Amino acid sequence: xxxxxxxxxxxxxxxxxxxxxxxxxxxxxxxxxxxxxxxxxxxxxxxxxxxxxxxxxxxxxxxxxxxxxxxxxxxxxxxxxxxxxxxxxxxxxxxxxxxxxxxxxxxxxxxxxxxxxxxxxxxxxxxxxxxxxxxxxxxxxxxxxxxxxxxxxxxxxxxxxxxxxxxxxxxxxxxxxxxxxxxxxxxxxxxxxxxxxxxxxxxxxxxxxxxxxxxxxxxxxxxxxxxxxxxxxxxxxxxxxxxxxxxxxxxxxxxxxxxxxxxxxxxxxxxxxxxxxxxxxxxxxxxxxxxxxxxxxxxxxxxxxxxxxxxxxxxxxxxxxxxxxxxxxxxxxxxxxxxxxxx
Length: 343
Fold this sequence. Notes:
Elements (H helix, E strand, L loop, with lengths): L4 E2 L1 E8 L2 E2 L5 E2 L2 E8 L2 E2 L19 H11 L11 E5 L11 E9 L2 E10 L6 H4 L7 E3 L1 H9 L14 E5 L3 H13 L3 E4 L8 H4 L4 E4 L5 H13 L5 E4 L5 H12 L9 E7 L2 E6 L3 E10 L5 E11 L2 E6 L8 E7 L4 E5 L4
Parallel strand pairs: 1-10, 11-12, 11-13, 13-14
Antiparallel strand pairs: 2-5, 3-4, 5-6, 7-8, 8-9, 9-10, 15-16, 16-19, 17-18, 17-20, 20-21
Helix pairs in contact: 4-7
């Protein structure tokens, strides 16, 4: 075969969960992404909300079977030697659509070719093929070592710390926030004083979120408790008692991926314009949340479309960002939150 060699690697990735403007939920998924020539393969698929089969929340036996399949130690799940590379993050059903490819051996090398969008057992490459992607030839020893490392120890990657400790004065808001987080697959617990939480429990949290009414002394005491437990935890200062906004802040805090491997890298909101920075073609949704004088929440969809790499200026409706207001920019893999600066 004539495919040139490409480098193969693996990296942790996240499909950010969230409470959407229409009231729906988007499930949080942590997974292992494929890195080809130093760049996430998913980034070559501009408008795709999907995860690899190597997700952290699948049972260890299934995870191991997926790895064995990619190593060609098991039969392909689809005809013609095709494997699912990315699937639906909500249900993993082929009927929702999946990116598939043929994986085969050529001597000691592994080759991924004939990428396509597939919704049933058979695929029409002429109509649904990704003609600009691949084929990729991977050096056999490096390819096997990268995948085998995922299952050498425990049969699955280490589970990310996707639990959040919620601390604040408004119990009703905290309860709604905890319910929303649990609905998208992020654990949440409410406490008033973390000093009484055992160290082994504190080590299970990836973030701690403070309400606006929590004072500096209380925050310092909580941070000290985590330090004594020997765990580094992301701190979230709640911007406003708006549940979708707080969920977005927490999702951003839980994302530990390097900036170079994120699609959405910048968000500003000032002068009646939102500035959005993306590193690869992707769908971006920008939502404005506003609190009126009676502390009622108003939601406005600012933008929903595919953006090319670079900086983009999106006009803001003055009515949507009047007074105390905030913007949430979201891609499938990440989310950013910013207060709207007054003119």
